């Protein structure tokens, strides 16, 4: 074969190859680029790296196919594509609740006596509510009552009900009145039921008992959530996880949850994960076994979702433990004592240490070895150092990087050296969880409990963001503050710095976009899912929220009144306002 013939043969082969690739490409476009649904006529804030805004989004197989102008996206439509007009409204990525207790929220909302301030303004009214409930409750059955956090600061009497008062209100029933989720007051019947006698100071799963000067229990229990039998029935749990949790969070624009889940309730969720009914919320679970985590097994395999479960909807991702209580009930573990004295204070006046350094180190090592998220609840400044120390030990142990989270980081108080330490550890896998709505609930109590200098160090969102910490927002809804489910109250508080004591530290205000990232992109990162959620980009879940107002242009005061018009999960409208 001469040179010309060889050249021509090679040229024919190249042309044929290119032509074949073109045909394959055209075939791929014909089958892959036809969206199932196109949402259009909207201001779609994608929160991608470029900060893009689009007019339409195309969805295929529950994921974003493409975002762009309406004209551009409509060209992708095929004969079976559906079109949904969003009426010119602002659309943001589906909201992610990065720290919540959904089972407890449904349980408290449905089966606990409501003694929540401000509807219940006093101890007197709380006792009346309990007495009325007791009259319709069978003798010997447990009664639980919910009071908001820091009720000792908020009730007219500036205290909580006593054991004797609870005995009188419910003489024939074991009763626990919860002051938030980290402190409760039990009546005599409840103490007997729990086996708490004279001289007993600690409970098996991390709870503490406050004793009087004679060693008798006063009725006050701290961090006894794993020592008191509150888990609902299997039938109730099934209803919660398959229906009511999803509806409650969807109504407020949520498409994903990091659901802090008691191990006893997990089997119900694992069963739901195999159901043929598709959920309307994406569950990521973090499992807890007890407040102090001593019974957390080294082998976490039993917490995994069953084979066949779709990880887009159900996934086990982490474990959680409590280092301390919470500053609002004066049990957050601090270096310096709280201001003043309450009868409910733990001995020493510096709060409660639930999980010591050695136990925290063990817990973090379990998560690290298993490759799952570790969540350490740290409220007081001393507890925060214990959490950071545990993670420092994990980092120095080597191995693959895992997500290490401090829950409630800097909410009540934050030292400069802790902020700087967290900034350095962010490079090694540290993430933080914050609760902006607490500005509206707890600043006044913080001043009373900690004094001005320490209180002013709390809620430093501007400083956290400037340090590159990318704080993830969570509602921390447990059923205590039901309104905290509303993310727009949190965005309002973070942007305006409004609080229950007026404008608080206005220099720590953040932008609307930054506040939204707390509930989207940064929340997704804190859960190890930035590749599939948190922004509206091709290949990510088509999870969106349609808002009543343009949160980026309305006056800041209007943020608290924003409503959800539609919640869209995987391209399907799962909630629509009436």
Description:
- By secondary structure, the chain is of the alpha/beta class.
- Among the domains are: 33-93 and 535-578, Urease, subunit C, domain 1, CATH 2.30.40; 104-222, Diaminopimelate Epimerase, Chain A, domain 1, CATH 3.10.310.
- The protein is built from 18 helices and 21 strands.
- Strands 5-12-13-14-15-16-17-18 form an eight-stranded parallel beta sheet. Strands 3-2-1-4-19-20-21 form a seven-stranded mixed beta sheet. Strands 6-7-8-9-11-10 form a six-stranded mixed beta sheet, with helices on both faces.
- Helix 4 (123-135) links the parallel strand 6 and strand 7 (143-147).
- The longest helix has 30 residues, at 3-32.
- Residues 1-31 have low confidence and may be disordered.
Specify the structural class. alpha/beta
Give the overall average pLDDT: 93
Number of helices: 18
CATH-level-2 architecture of one domain: Roll
Assign an overall shape.
globular
The neighbouring-strand order within the major sheet is 5-12-13-14-15-16-17-18
Helix content: 25-40%
Low confidence ranges: 1-31
**Hey, roughly how much beta strand do the residues contain?**
15-25%
Q: Tell me, what is the CATH class of one domain?
A: Alpha Beta
The biggest beta sheet, please? Answer: 8 strands, parallel
CATH T-level topology of one domain:
Diaminopimelate Epimerase, Chain A, domain 1
User: How many beta-strand segments?
Assistant: 21
CA radius of gyration? 26 Å
* Cα separation of the termini: 79 Å
